[in-house]
Amino acid sequence: MQVKKFFVSKDINSQKQFRRITIQATEILEKFWWSNPKAYISKSPLKNFFIPAHGEHLSAILNDVGKNIISAGINPSNPKAIGHMHCLPTTSSIVTELLIGATNQSLDSWDESPGATYVEQSIVQALCKLIGLPAKSSGIVDSGGTMSNQTAVLIARDWYVNQELGVDIKKRGIPAKALKKLKVFCSTEAHFSIEKSVAICGLGTDAVVKVPVDKSLTIDENKLEQMIYREKKKGNLPFLIVATAGTTNAGNIPNLSKIAEIAHKNKAWFHVDAAYGGALVFSKNYKPLLKGIEKADSITLDPHKLLYQSVSCGLFLLRDQRHFEHLSFHSEYLNPKDDKTKGVINLVDRSMQTTRRFDALKLYVSLRNLGKDGYNALITSTIQTAQQFAELLKADPNFELATQPQTNIILLRFIKDGLNADQLNNINDKLQQQLYNSGKIIFSRTKIKNKVFLKATCMNPLTTLKDFREILKLTSQEATKLVSST
Ligand SMILES: Cc1ncc(COP(=O)(O)O)c(C=O)c1O
Questions:
Q1: What is the whole-number distance in angstroms between the Cα of residue 221 and the centre of ligand 1?
Q2: ∠ CA 266-267-270 to the nearest 5 degrees?
Q3: pLDDT tens-digit profile of 14-52?
Q4: Whose CA is nearest to atom 5 of ligand 1?
Q5: Which of 64, 228, 474, 485 has its CA 20 to 30 A from that of 145?
Q6: pTM to 2 decimals?
Q7: Strands 237-244 vs 182-187: parallel, antiparallel or unpaired
Q8: What are the start-end ranges of the H helices in 132-250?
């Protein structure tokens, strides 16, 4: 092993060698970009891994990684990769990842990352402004939607119990008078991380009241009001209402203004989980779907979904940044109390994490590189193309949609007269698996009201209408084969 200048490596110890190795990594990427949505893979790409005693040459390892590991993955740049919410990252995000990894800033405290602290805060402020949050708002970049939802549940719980029951949970724990009474309301289509967060916050999953959805597969606001009323009558305490703006299954968005009104009328915290749909603030055509998001007390927005960032890049936004106090702890070595009076920004005061990547940098570079018009084009065009795909499916008697899509997620299933519900579920299950295993099309799979649906997350800007026609043809052919073998 050698340590020379800035290189800690077995064999890379000059700028020339470093450049050469980064070119090799780029060449591996280029091959990957041209590959299928997914390679056929039936077993682990690693055979009996053992840690080598003396280290191997980096170039040889990278060749092996390219040939055997990367090639065994899902390729988000292939037009037929339309499974989950993982995007083809912007080019700026990809190249900035190298800088983030190599410069290794950690966003805990100002003295560890002075420039990075200001950059993160600047882009957070810019996004708060774009959404329409007030000047007192702020936020934090985190690892994704799960972390942001966890942060929201914790802050909402502590804020409510402090305000309504006069107890500081951070110091004294959850008081007996609140236990088993605190209730969170979200739809049956909310992301599971809400329920998980409630459990982690010590309230138990029984504290989650799941409100039915309407035909758009978003929360039924009338039922929400009725269920809040019912819980209050039982003496329970509705402290948090969650609206999912861009549901994980269908991508649809409820009436956020109405839900804000219900939450605030009931003195509850209003959290908008806009992990997926929050990016629509950049789309001139579709931003109106988010009307009311500016009334949120907190927002989850995942740039690693529809803002096309490499994993991971999440955002948690807070209407009133003073509420970060519920997360704030001090230590002399990192963020001493008197730093606050001196005006020093230590972002660890706002985060569940301590060491934290400078993921804000890739978003900053992407926002500058694409601009508002670039993001508008990306988001608007993927939604429009997805909706054309939905129209093709609607015109085909062998397919049905779970709901009318508002964004770029389409839930489709193969149907055929004469087949019962179980047979159709079975066929759609196998259809997704077979297309996946063959590497022809990557759909994900979900269930809506006991029916199996194929989920097409059509956020890939390289997927054209022509691709969607092919996707439909291939899916039909595969389904027909499955019917004949039933
Ligand atoms: C609405 C919603 N919220 C939260 C999450 C969790 O996000 P992450 O996977 O980034 O933790 C997802 C993920 O799909 C989601 O769709």
A1: 22
A2: 95
A3: 999 999 999 999 999 999 998 888 876 777 888 888 999
A4: 145
A5: 228
A6: 0.97
A7: parallel
A8: 145-165, 169-172, 192-200, 221-233
